Amino acid sequence: MAIEVVVPLMGEGIFEATLVKWLKKPGDKVEKDEPLLEVSTDKVDTEIPAIAGGYVIALYAQASDVVLVDQVIAHIGASPDEKVTAPARATPAKSPTPNPSHVSAGPGQKSGAANKSAMSIGSQMTTLGARPAYQTATVPLELAGSVRSSPLVRRMASEMGVDLRFVEGTGQFSRITKQDLQQFLSGGGSRVPRVELTGSSPESSVAQADMAPFRVKTRESDGVETLEGVGVRREPMTKMRKLIADHMVQSIRTSAHVTTTIEIDLEKVVQLRRDKNEIFSERNGFKLTFTPFFLHAAIQAIKKDMIFNCSVDGYDILWKDDINLGCAVAIDEGLIVPVIKKAQDLSLTDIAGRLNDLAIRARSKSLKPDEVKGGTFSVTNPGMFGCLVSTPIINQPQVAIMSVGGIIRRPVVVENDQIAIRSIASLGITFDHRVIDGQGGARFLSNIKNALESPTDLGI
Q: What is the pTM of this model?
């Protein structure tokens, strides 16, 4: 009997994903746990493996479809010409009824019959108890942000100046209802401040929190598009690139960014790593890099000043119980920040192991959405590419991000005004000046400097 392939649960509160591409087509042989398709959530792109070996018989969704958790999206069987019937849960989420063109049949399948079966069963989805499909509509720009709500609620939020990202939804799949919005306002929920713009047009008197992306003016002549006289080739951003763009611009608009840096003598850390690396690799199966030292030092500094681990909600400060450390990992499509949860309880060796595992799976697109959310503090390490100083953008809703510069061997003045060759690195902290002052940023770096220049009790 053919096996149903369903969209797995990918994390708490995640009920849907966008199908990016199929890695197998009908008729292809697939091994158990071999990547079958790639999906994208609002946090991460990930591959879904085959739950069994065999042949792909039929696919019930296509690239760009929004698919729901538990939705059947394919069949795998022992033979490529095994006969199957399209299941009720095969309805693509972006269409109210199944689209016959979305069902791809294998060599031995009669796609018309399968499509007809899917259409007849799909009309009974609600009575069968499966999650009903819903449409994703294009709505005007509003303050709501990327949240699940109706166009009416979004319009009301825009008119009232409310950011729906701070409204708790009680509807199906946490959808925000009109009653939720009214309850939010009656309970003293804050609105988004309106900002006056300087401009000659009355229409430009109010800026909304989520503004449209900046657009440039191009010209097109004889099929050639130009920008200020220079020919251009237009290419849409990937979904990940768009999410990064929106997130970074939102952060700049939200936080008052301030960056301060400090130089650290890493000679003792370099020597410690040199002495321990071989036995560490034999014991753990991977090499000890410098990054875990920086992460461990950041955790110790946060423990002394938990304001760096908070979030800001209007004029309220949200103090967090756990230190969930995000560490930026560069991948081909951009940058992703997997999170080491409850890092306050981990040794340096534990941190190194978690980081190694997350980085490997980030580059192989096998991270789970839960593993890239819930971060409370972030670290980025452009130093591995030779960069000395950087001014990163805070990863909202966090209030700080630490940057690590490259380790450079150079002459410095040491005790008794002697000159020696030491391993020096610049560390920076970019913080939200709404809740952290310059003195706090300097104190944080000073604590990290002390931890790295006098490493003790690391348990390597």
A: 0.63
